[in-house]
Structures are given as structure tokens and as C-alpha cells.
Design goal:
Elements lengths: L3 E6 L5 E5 L5 E5 L3 H10 L4 E6 L3 H8 L18 E4 L3 H20 L11 H24 E10 L6 H8 L4 E5 L7 H4 L4 H12 L3 E4 L2 H14 L7 E3 L6 H8 L2 H14 L3 E8 L6 H14 L7 E8 L6 H20 L8 E5 L3 H10 L2 E4 L8 H9 L4 E5 L12 E3 L4 H13 L2 H15 L4 H10 L3
Parallel strand pairs: 1-4, 1-6, 4-5, 6-7, 7-8, 8-9, 10-11, 10-13, 11-12, 13-14, 14-15
Antiparallel strand pairs: 2-3
Helix pairs in contact: 1-17, 3-4, 4-5, 5-7, 7-8, 10-13, 11-12, 11-15, 13-14, 14-16
Length: 462
């Protein structure tokens, strides 16, 4: 049948739309290595990227484009063929907000305390998640050529491989999970039918991918616990960073301008930097507590070290995320109040979406703090060691990145005292040890850049 030989499917696509001053749709491209890698693949003549319309403007653009193909409607997609699905708003809300973001995300990150109640409303949202995945499976089936290779991305679309297999058994399907996978103990908190169907969904793929052997092992344990036989190989593809475009972007004027403002605020102090989204899994709150403990236990660092934290607002439509953001802002203010006798505030904490500022923050860091409760990979850890010429990395052992970066100072993300000690150790590293650690960290960060990461997954389907 006619169609594309490579199909990419992901919840979020390579671009989104907003209205300009004239009330017309204006597109903006997503950032990050993953979007770049997928964009290269989607720009092939015989490839298509299928994604969801996530806003009202996206939905308007999708419905006014031929079969949702926004590239055919004259929009700039960077040369990629992009089909945007205008899924019903109630289906999107149930699948994306309730199931994907409020159930699967926390369970995969071990945030059991934030899990929802499995009531009738949740069950209705689960049905919407099934419907949402089925819409993607149908769109892929319609768009794929005979024997096409299909790359399904992340926990939003866990059911797609099995649904698609039933529609198109000729297709070669890979699914990749960018988050961790839940432990069997945590996974058992899901209603039995949902847990089993999620495993069955991935079992429909020809290849099941993760960032870390730990997440693959967790999935295998969950499959065993649910009694589902998985014949597809579990593969590990640890995504890295391409330093060339990253460093080129960091050299642009807007980054230099923000770096100048930041240097003035730092005022000669050494910098413990972090860049994260304001969500509980990133563990910003305990990072702030660890920095405060560092100053209490090691007063020589007061007014000699500043904690520069840029926090991206995340999922502010979810009450738990709004509350967490407010708690972090309040704690930063409390720490500055506690050390008010210092000549300058010890914490510079901002909540805003500012990519140039994030690059400037990472570039000026003497120490980078990444203390996530759990992360599939955590590319910030890798980007940070490439952007700062001699940064020391304090890294949660619960990140996928910890597998590849043993030269970081690895910490238990729940242990505030140990994290404070690691921050002191990072600041106290000799120049020679810091340089040697950084050399190995930078090599690990760039070991599997996005284009190679993507090619690995295409190759296993060949």
C-alpha cells in the first residue's frame, strides 16, 4: 500500500501553534535533542511524524489541514511531514492529564503519594486513554507503507503497539519509554486490568526500548507479575547529547546577554547551578534543603557560593504541581531570610520558561546539582558537563545518566545531609581531579547523540 516507510508517533510533536498579533496561527519549534533527532528522521522523503493537537490553536490548524497534514497546509515544519491529530478535547484531557500525567508519570517515578483514587471518574479516563491510543494506532495504520518501521514514543502511547499489531501485522514496531519504568511493587498499585493491558500494549512491539538496564529489568518484573508473556527483546539505548548544535546555540547573543546579567548577580561567587522543571520528581525542594544545610555546616561557603536555580513551570494545570512550585519558591525565600546577614542573597531562584537563561546557568556552573528522585535519563546532567568547561556533577543515582557517569558524585536523592556533603566535596575538588573527572563525564555525555540513538532503533527493525 502507499504510505510512509518510517512513521514516528509521539504525544507532543515538533512544533506547536499560538495566535500572533493579527490573530493568525504562528508556529514555534520544540527544543531539545529528541525533537532534533526525530525531525531529521521525519524530514526524509518517505517519513511522517504523527502527534496530537495539544491546544485549541493546534486543533484549529489540524482540522483546517488536509487529513491533519500541517505541512501540506503551508506551515513551516522544517521539511518534515507532520500529521497532527485533533483528538476530542475530553478524550485528550482524560488520557493526557488524568492517566498519562497523573497516573503513569508518578507511578513510573515512584511518587505513590500523588496517585489518584481509582474511582468511576478514573475508570472513565482510562477508557479515554484507550481511545486516545487507538486514534494514534488508526492514524499510523493509515499512514504506513507495507512493512514500514514505526517508532512509538513514551508512556502516553503504551497501548499503541498491540492495537497497531492487530490492525497491521506487517509493520515493524518499536516502542521507547523515556521515563523510568515502575518497580513491580509500585506497578501493582494500578488496577489489575490496567496494569496487564499496559504490559500487553508494549508486548505488541518488535523491540521495547529504555534508557537504562534498570528500567528494562523493572518492565520484565512487571510483565512476570502480571502474567504477560513478552517475546520482544528489551533493548537499552541511552540517549546522549550532540555537543555541536548545543555549543553553537550557547554561543548566540541572547545567551551571552543572559550570562552577563547572571555574572553580575553572582558577583564573583562560585556557582552551584541547576535547571529543572517544577515537578516533584525533580526534587528541587530537597536540593534547596541540601544547599541550606551546606551553608549551616560549612560557614566558609556563606557569601562565597551562590545557588542559581532556574525552574521551568511544569503542568500548572495540576494542583500538586502548582503547590510544589509555590513550596519551592517559599523555601528559597526562607533560606535567603535565614542568611540575611550575608552581603548578598545565597539563592537566586527563578520560575520561568527561558531556554537561553538555562544555557547561561549551565555554562556558569562550578557545580551542577541533579538530584532527581528518579529519571529515565536526565539530559540536563549531560548538557551541563558539555556547556561548562570544568563543572563538577552531583548526580542522583536514581537517574539513567548515573549508569554512564560514574565520575559524578552520586547521591541518594532522599538524603539531604549526604547531598550537602557531596556539594562540599564537589566544591573542594582539586583542579587536576576536577579536570580528569570532567573529561570523562563529557565523553560519556556525547557517547550516543540523538541521531545515532535514533538510528540504533531503526536498525534493529531492519
Amino acid at each position: 500500500m502507499a504510505g510512509s516507510s518510517v512513521v514516528i508517533a509521539s504525544n507532543r510533536g515538533p512544533l506547536s501553534f499560538s495566535l500572533d498579533r493579527d490573530g493568525k496561527p504562528s508556529s514555534s519549534r520544540g527544543g531539545g535533542g529528541l525533537v532534533s533527532a526525530m525531525s531529521v528522521a521525519a524530514a526524509q522523503d518517505d517519513a511522517v511524524w504523527i502527534c496530537a493537537a495539544l491546544s485549541d490553536v493546534d486543533r484549529s490548524v489540524a482540522t483546517s489541514s488536509p487529513r491533519g497534514r500541517i505541512d501540506l497546509a503551508g506551515h513551516d515544519t522544517g521539511g518534515a511531514a507532520v500529521r497532527m491529530l485533533a483528538v476530542d478535547e475530553s478524550v485528550l484531557a482524560g488520557a493526557y492529564t488524568s492517566i498519562a500525567n497523573s497516573t503513569l508519570w508518578p507511578i513510573n517515578h515512584g511518587l505513590i503519594d500523588t496517585m489518584p483514587t481509582y474511582d468511576d471518574r478514573w475508570l472513565a479516563d482510562w477508557d479515554r486513554y484507550v481511545e486516545y491510543n487507538a486514534a494514534f494506532a488508526q492514524a499510523i495504520a493509515e499512514s504506513a507503507a507495507d512493512d514500514a518501521r514505526v517508532l512509538v514514543q513514551d508512556y502516553h502511547l503504551d497501548l499503541v503497539p498491540a492495537q497497531l499489531r492487530a490492525m497491521r501485522p506487517d509493520l515493524r514496531i518499536a516502542h521507547f519509554t523515556h521515563t523510568p519504568w515502575a518497580t513491580a511493587e509500585d506497578f501493582a498499585r494500578l488496577p489489575g486490568d490496567a496494569a496487564r493491558r499496559l504490559v500487553e500494549g508494549l508486548a505488541g512491539a518488535d523491540s521495547i526500548g529504555f534508557h537504562s538496564p534498570r528500567w528494562a529489568a523493572n518492565f520484565a518484573a512487571c510483565a512476570a507479575a502480571t502474567g504477560v508473556t513478552v517475546t520482544a527483546p528489551l533493548r537499552v539505548h541511552p540517549l546522549g547529547v550532540d555537543p555541536v548544535p548545543l555549543l553553537a546555540r550557547a554561543a548566540e547573543r541572547d545567551v551571552a546577554e543572559r550570562a552577563g546579567v547572571l555574572r553580575a548577580a553572582v558577583d564573583g561567587r562560585r556557582v552551584i547551578g541547576r535547571v529543572d522543571r517544577t515537578e516533584p520528581a525533580k526534587n528541587i525542594h530537597r536540593g534547596l534543603l541540601a544547599f541550606a544545610e551546606l551553608l549551616r555546616q560549612r560557614p566558609e561557603h556563606v557569601d562565597a557560593v551562590v545557588h542559581v536555580a532556574l525552574a521551568y513551570p511544569s503542568r500548572q494545570d495540576v494542583a500538586e504541581y502548582r503547590d510544589y512550585t509555590s513550596d519551592c519558591v517559599a523555601l528559597a525565600a526562607e533560606i535567603n531570610g535565614e542568611f540575611a546577614d550575608a552581603a548578598r542573597p545565597p539563592v537566586l531562584f527563578e520560575v520561568r520558561d527561558d531556554y537561553p537563561r538555562s544555557l547561561a546557568t549551565l555554562g556558569c556552573a562550578d557545580v551542577l546539582l541533579v538530584n532527581s528522585l528518579r529519571d529515565g535519563m536526565n539530559l540536563v546532567a549531560k548538557e551541563g558537563v558539555l556547556l561548562s568547561p570544568d563543572v563538577a556533577l552531583v548526580l542522583s543515582r536514581e537517574t539513567g545518566a548515573a549508569d554512564e557517569m560514574p565520575d559524578a558524585l552520586l547521591v541518594d536523592p532522599l538524603d539531604v545531609e549526604a547531598t550537602a556533603d557531596a556539594l562540599h566535596e564537589a566544591l573542594a575538588l582539586s583542579g587536576a581531579e576536577r579536570a580528569e573527572r570532567h573529561r570523562r563525564l563529557a565523553a560519556a555525555a556525547a557517547a550516543l547523540p540523538p541521531h545515532a540513538w535514533l538510528q540504533q532503533q531503526l536498525d534493529v527493525l531492519s
